Prefoldin subunit 6 (Powellomyces hirtus), 119 residues
Amino acid sequence: MAAAQQLEKEMAAFQNLQKEFSKVIQSRAQLESQLKENEMVAKEFELLKENATVYKLIGPVLVKQDKPEATVNVKKRIEFITSEIKRLEGQIKDLNQKQDAKKEEVMRLQQEYQQQIAA
């Protein structure tokens, strides 16, 4: 029954890949949401006058912040989120390839196992 054990092992590995894939997709969706939010903030900053007062929420307190400083912070955040999305897209591609390979391996092992049972 070595084939059955090998099949179980490969199925478990495939399921783990699927779980990891789901987590990465969820993280990417969350980052996309944050990116949209920050892009909206950046557009709002463009509409403000140069001497406008900007406040940043830090915990339960609103802290006064210079508009140029706030604008730079938002741009940096957008750059960071964009780079994280690109990194996750690479992970997604890699996990897709691993899933495909593992899926083929599982199918091959299933065929071997069924042939053994039939014999």
In short: The helical segments are 2-47, 67-118. The CA atoms of residues 49 and 77 lie 22 Å apart. The longest strand covers residues 54-58.
